[in-house]
Amino acid sequence: MKKICFVMGTRPEIIKLAPIIKYCELKKKNFFIIFTCQHYDQNMSDKFFKELKIKKPKYKISIQKKRKSNYVNLLSDQIKKILVFENPYIVVVQGDTNSSLAGAIATTKINSKNKKIYLAHVEAGLRSYDYRMPEEFNRQVIDNLSDILFPPTHIQKRILIKEGFSKKKIFVTGSTISDSLNMIKFKTKIKKNFILLTLHRHELLIDRKATTNLFKMLDKIANETYKKIWFFCHPRTLNILKKYKISLNNNFKLNGPVNYKNFLKYLYNCSFIMSDSGGIQEEACILKKNLITLRLNTERPETIKIGSNYLSMEFEKIIKRIRKINNHKPKWKSPYGKNVSKKIMKEILNEKNFVPN
Known about the structure:
By secondary structure, this protein is an alpha/beta fold. The protein has two domains: 3-174 and 337-354, Glycogen Phosphorylase B (Rossmann fold), CATH 3.40.50; 194-326, Rossmann fold (3-Layer(aba) Sandwich). It has helices at 11-26, 46-51, 71-86, 98-110, 134-145, 154-162, 177-183, 202-205, 208-225, 235-243, 260-269, 279-286, 301-306, 315-326, 340-348; strands at 3-8, 30-35, 59-60, 90-94, 118-122, 148-150, 194-198, 228-232, 252-255, 272-275, 291-293, 309-311. Helix 4 links the parallel strand 4 and strand 5 (118-122). Helix 1 crosses helix 15, helix 3 (71-86) packs across helix 4 (98-110) and helix 4 packs parallel to helix 5. The chain is globular. 44% of the residues are buried.
């Protein structure tokens, strides 16, 4: 039986690959997982495997001093050793993390005239063209190394075709997050008078003055809306706040990492969401929650098009948006599909998709 390898290292990857892995378990496919421990906090990694009830990784890799410039190369070398030993038919990576990039590089390092391991990229074709974001470089490299691409919508398919990718290797499937949300049952009745906030992006937090001004703006928004901000703080973000000596007043309720079910509970029951995240743009859209993305661009323009998402870093524009969403119920339809994992596995197991042109 053909062997499938999943490479992952972060919480979002676990969540988005979980339904594909569950499908493989259900259909008794031969697969294994390589986990890179890119998210070092146990609440952001190990517990998610248990919560989502998926098979634990067969291999765990831990590269110390991750800030080294050669981190991805060191990681890809370790993954390559495992791939040589296991000899899978195909490697599946998701999104734009360093773990996905390392998995893609490791796969291509093995390939030669006499040996070929195929590479599949789930969530292909996303583009912001903002090269301050390390993820933008990662996702473009992974797409170019991949043998088969799974963009979530036709917007990403058009981007890939415009960049010169063959239509024969592109399959629009939707987003696996829609399957993930169906896997989790969470409570939907709690107090709703709060704003949910997440912040973690490097380009948003790299400058002390800009970060300080951002939190001053968020404090003004809390005062203007008479809502407390429930801040689900990434460990790295918390360290940056301490480094910049930014203290949060009573307008903020600081929360550490929580399991996915609890996070969805808060996400679903908040008044609205403010975030710099990419994945939350999809979750908010599917759950019909209004989102204000604290960025100037997005790799998910479909959320802007249907009205579930709004981009801004300006106080007046954000307040105007909040007033609008307070007076209108969400009416958009999610573009992210259903039974996505089944569609992806169908194409991965179809040998005709890997016949050279």
